[in-house]
Write a structure and sequence with these properties.
Layout: H1 3-6, E1 12-16, H2 28-37, E2 41-48, E3 54-56, H3 90-93, H4 119-132, E4 139-144, H5 158-171, E5 178-182, H6 185-194, E6 199-204, H7 210-217, E7 223-226, H8 233-241, E8 245-246, H9 254-263, E9 267-270, H10 273-281
Parallel strand pairs: 1-2, 1-9, 2-4, 4-5, 5-6, 6-7, 7-8
Antiparallel strand pairs: 2-3
Helix pairs in contact: 2-4, 5-6
């Protein structure tokens, strides 16, 4: 792909945490609505439970803004991290509700009871719906929520964390249609060692030069995932030269979507896949 022809390429639509602008994030109803809308890729986050289950959740704890405790009560923000998923078996995790509190940043959300699902439940439900709709199965962008300060507290060290996720991907036969995303270079390095066939995406949220990020990672990833306002024609020239796809996050404004599309990128991650799909259809 050249910069001269890139703007004519339709970017893949990545539904961020399902479709966070429309349904509660990282829940089965949100993922299934995104599939019905016609997303190409479901973007989601994974953590580990105390019993080693791969759970879909952005935080490794129960976010007080969107989750109710097993008694249906609000969780005080000051103690939300005490509801640590890494210290709870999945049977306990599924007793929390994370679908009936509207995220303060997304007033259009449809609210309904929903638990934090297992990765396998999301994949099986999405694939079943795709088959029912007569469509090809969606792909998955799976972000591993890891940072050095969380080792041993909110998640295991990268070797163990990646092994658990890789095992699940193999069991689900998901490797050919998924990528593993992370801000933590240790996770991507470990993924490269344990499962070289799996596509890797380096997530970036700072303005450090592209080459510095690649040097810190130690290899060239298949995908580069910058915050959307960091995407420039210069960055795309560098990534195109090295054969790296660019999938920026999280693009919700229509004007930003138009600008990003005009630059020519492989995909766009958005909380509002309905908006992006309508724009691309036009």
């Amino acid at each position: 792909m050249t910069l001269q022809t890139a703007s004519s390429i339709r970017p893949d639509v990545h539904g961020h945490r399902g479709c966070r602008g429309l349904y509660p994030e990282n829940t089965l109803p949100g993922f299934l609505h995104a599939v019905r809308l016609g997303v190409d890729v479901l973007e989601l986050d994974v953590v580990l439970s105390a019993d080693g289950q791969v759970v879909v959740s952005h935080e490794p704890w129960m976010n007080a803004a969107i989750c109710l405790d097993p008694q249906g009560l609000r969780i005080p923000a000051a103690v939300q991290q005490q509801h640590n998923l890494y210290q709870l078996p999945y049977e306990a995790i599924r007793r929390y509700d994370c679908g009936q509190l509207r995220h303060p940043g997304f007033p259009e959300q449809v609210l309904l009871p929903a638990v934090k699902p297992l990765l396998r439940d999301v994949v099986e439900a999405a694939d079943a719906l795709s088959m029912q709709l007569g469509r090809s199965p969606v792909r998955f962008s799976i972000e591993v929520k890891s940072e050095p300060a969380g080792d041993g507290r909110f998640h295991p060290a990268p070797t163990v964390f990646v092994a658990a996720v890789v095992t699940e991907l193999r069991v689900l036969d998901l490797v050919p249609r998924s990528s593993l995303l992370c801000f933590d270079v240790r996770v991507l390095q470990e993924c490269r060692r344990q499962l070289p066939a799996l596509a890797r995406c380096l997530l970036v949220e700072d303005a450090l030069p592209f080459e510095e990020h690649i040097q810190a990672l130690g290899f060239v990833p298949e995908v580069y995932g910058p915050r959307y306002d960091l995407v420039t024609s210069e960055l795309l020239a560098e990534t195109n030269h090295q054969g790296i796809q660019v999938v920026p996050w999280t693009v919700n404004n229509l004007d930003d979507m138009r600008s990003i599309c005009a630059l020519g990128i492989a995909g766009i991650t958005t909380d509002y896949p309905d908006r992006l799909l309508a724009l691309l259809a036009r």
